[in-house]
Design brief:
469 residues, mainly alpha, 22 helices, transmembrane helix, membrane, transmembrane
């Protein structure tokens, strides 16, 4: 009996993997050839992934995504809309899912040689405390994410995750690395032009690009300093001691000469490729990142004459790793169903107007109200980036006579905070899949103090700009 159950689970797992592979391939095909058969088949593959996950995954681990799907159904029924909105929502997150899956190839290059150790050895005399190590990780994440957006999370995390000393307790290590990565990433949305949320907000408010970037960068730097200060206060409570600093002693068998230059070359090629394909070839950033990652990774293994290892990595990646993504994919698909439902029924637009009415009734400053609206939407289960997509068409009508860049920055502050405190966001999904911890732990529980203080400082910063503008 146990053998038959194992066989059934094996077949269900393989069915999930096949559906996921086809879902990604169909999305990539749809970017160059739009056809109803392609889009409808995507929804079918998404439905197969949902059903196979429900059959084998513990239901307790799926409470949040099931709740999101239930809310979507309630919206369709209460608005007397067509159930086709749910079907369309199954492919709403196809770009995000493709990005989340294919960005993992970056780790193949990083782990192929001890690049990170060679890089950190350059400044080993300065990395003498956990706070300095935290500052390094935060800065690197912020820099990389400024080019790769959400892809910077796994890229940065995987740079350091294998450098943990064996005797270091897991919680202090996870806390240090995870908070540094998520905070460094979340601040990029305030000024990085390639970030989808930034692009949608600037377009929706008609805000001037460079003034918005400049003012957003100022707030991001304040957030960076605050993040380091908050960590310094939190580290004793989380028992973060000096041993959390990675071992930077050189193994005589490791040949590190020239690795820094090679590492910088491949990172530059990766980031430069993303920048060129996005800005000059006009590819959507969510499509440009995975495509460039695949191309650069392939070139890397060809140039290093390691194609057999590359083929083995692909086999393990598809045959084993894909099957471990069930909960993550289920959650993203359910979020996509909610986003698609809100867009198709028009209820998302109405919801935003309701929030604006409440802001006016409470007599709040409209700039503060906009920031809180975005955060509230996030806590209602609505991801911040899709929220900006949904709202971009009505942001130009915001009352108050404020400069467009201040309206944009108010919304972006809300997005930045939402990214690490909301119940479910793509960055938290990525981070939780990397360290194996819950969304609430890597998000709200570890970052609530930083989130509240940064929100208050951010609101004061924007009000100060409004006064002097």
């Amino acid at each position: 009996m146990k053998g038959s159950k194992g066989t059934i689970s094996h077949y269900i797992n393989n069915l999930f993997i096949i559906a996921l592979v086809l879902y990604i391939l169909l999305y990539l095909l749809s970017t160059i050839w739009e056809h109803p058969i392609i889009t409808e088949t995507q929804s079918i593959m998404a439905m197969i992934m949902l059903l196979t996950t429900l059959l084998v995954f513990p239901k307790r681990g799926l409470l949040l995504p099931i709740l999101l799907i239930t809310i979507s159904i309630i919206i369709v029924v209460s608005t007397s809309s067509s159930p086709i909105a749910l079907w369309i929502g199954l492919r709403e997150m196809n770009a995000i899912i493709t990005l989340v899956i294919l960005i993992g190839l970056v780790s193949w290059m990083i782990s192929h040689r001890p690049y990170v150790k060679a890089l950190m050895l350059l400044g080993k005399k300065k990395i003498t405390t956990p706070t300095r190590f935290y500052s390094l990780v935060t800065s690197i994440t912020h820099l990389i994410s400024s080019f790769m957006t959400v892809g910077g999370i796994p890229f940065s995390y995987q740079m350091f995750q294998n450098m943990k000393k064996p005797h270091v307790t897991q919680l202090p290590w996870d806390f240090t690395l995870s908070t540094a990565v998520i905070r460094g990433f979340s601040l990029t949305v305030l000024w990085t032009a390639v970030h989808p949320a930034f692009a949608y907000v600037v377009g929706g408010t008609n805000a001037p690009l460079f003034p918005t970037m400049f003012k957003g960068l100022g707030l991001a730097m304040i957030g960076m300093a605050l993040s380091i200060g908050i960590f310094s206060l939190q580290k004793s409570r989380k028992k973060v001691v000096d041993e959390v600093i990675p071992d930077l002693t050189m193994n005589p068998k490791e040949h590190l000469n020239g690795l820094v230059g090679k590492f910088l070359f491949w990172v530059s090629l990766l980031m430069g490729g993303i920048f060129i394909t996005h800005h000059f070839l006009k590819l959507d950033i969510l499509l440009a990142v995975p495509l460039v990652v695949v191309v650069v990774t392939t070139l890397y293994f060809i140039s290093n004459r390691a194609l057999p290892q590359y083929k083995k990595q692909w086999f393990t990646f598809v045959a084993i790793d894909f099957g471990k993504k069930k909960r993550e994919i289920f959650l993203m698909l359910s979020a996509g169903i909610l986003v698609g439902t809100l867009k198709e029924t028009g209820y998302g637009h109405d919801l935003f107007l309701y929030f604006l009415t409440i802001v006016e009734w409470l007599n709040l400053n409209i700039l503060m109200g906009l920031t809180l609206v975005v955060i509230l939407l996030g806590f209602c289960g609505f991801p911040p980036i899709p929220a900006m997509v949904l709202l971009s068409g009505i942001l130009i009508d915001i009352p108050g006579g404020y400069a467009p860049e201040l309206v944009a920055l108010s919304l972006l502050l809300g997005v930045s905070v939402t990214l690490f405190v909301a119940p479910v966001t793509v960055p938290l999904l990525l981070l939780a899949s990397l360290n194996g911890r819950s969304l609430s732990e890597v998000g709200l529980r570890w970052n609530i103090i930083f989130g509240i203080i940064f929100l208050v400082i951010g609101l004061v910063y924007i009000q100060g700009l409004a006064v002097f503008s």
